[in-house]
Amino acid sequence: MKYLLTVRRAMLLATTCALLQHGGPVLAGGSAGASDPVPVVGTRPAMNALTPQPVAAALQVASGINGASGSGGVGDMGGDAQGNVAELMQMIHDSQLTELRTTYNGSYGASLFFYPQEMTYYIALFQDKHFWRVIKSQDDVRAEAVYAGFVQQTSQLAEVEIRRTQLQAQKAFIQDVIALSEKRAQRLQADLEVARTQQAKVNDYQRQAQSEAVALRAEKERAQTQLREVQNQVQQLQRQNESGLPAPR
């Protein structure tokens, strides 16, 4: 009983340290830390790049310290889970495992590994570059069932992430359409301004031309009147000059 109490205190202390280090609660299966980049849907990290979740790492350190007397682990379900994580990571690092299956849904993944020397299966659930859960079993049927369950879990967990990616793409597409539409509107506005300016010039030109035409028409009429008067005067003078002369044949 005293040993279990010591272990629980160690777990509580390790969890508290992990929470203080990350500035807030860290839930198993949650997103990566704030300093990590946002996971990209479909990204497949290398297996040897996977790490335990921050809380899992803290508990693993605590279990190693308190188990120095020979226990070798925390001793309860949580300790076994963290021990499996560390064991799997080490075996992956040492290339002792055969990767039988891996399924990705978004940044979530599930893998089924096999350790031939002990006929043991390791079923891992991870998100981005962090291991989440690791189950160890020598029962191939149970291993396949756990793997199938993990795969279904990754599918459910990734729905929001995939939807977010789709919405981000739709938003970016709409923003591109808006930008193109705004540019087209600006071009049309510029053309409209040019048309309005030119129309105003045309209107001024038309009014000026109309005024000039009216003035020219009046001047033309005055010139015709003057021409008739001059022609009449010429005819009168010509008759006077030819007065008393024989009429031309």
Characterization of this structure:
The chain is of the alpha+beta class and 249 residues long. The chain has a domain at 2-166. Helices cover 61% and strands 14% of the residues. It is built from four helices and five strands; from the N terminus they run αβααββββα. The chain has helices at 2-22, 54-66, 77-93, 140-241, and strands at residues 51-52, 98-105, 108-115, 120-127, 130-137. It has a five-stranded mixed beta sheet. A hairpin with a 4-residue loop joins β3 and β4 (120-127). The chain is rod-shaped. It starts with a helix and ends in an 8-residue tail after the last helix. 22% of the residues are buried.
Features:
alpha+beta; rod-shaped; 249 residues; 5-stranded mixed sheet
Topology:
Blueprint (H helix, E strand, L loop, with lengths): L1 H21 L28 E2 L1 H13 L10 H17 L4 E8 L2 E8 L4 E8 L2 E8 L2 H102 L8
Parallel strand pairs: 1-5
Antiparallel strand pairs: 2-3, 3-4, 4-5
Helix pairs in contact: 1-2, 2-3
Helix percentage:
55-70%
- Per the principal axes of the C-alpha atoms, what is the gross shape? rod-shaped
Strand order of the largest sheet: 1-5-4-3-2
The profile of the biggest β sheet is: 5 strands, mixed
The helix/strand series, from N terminus to C terminus, equals HEHHEEEEH
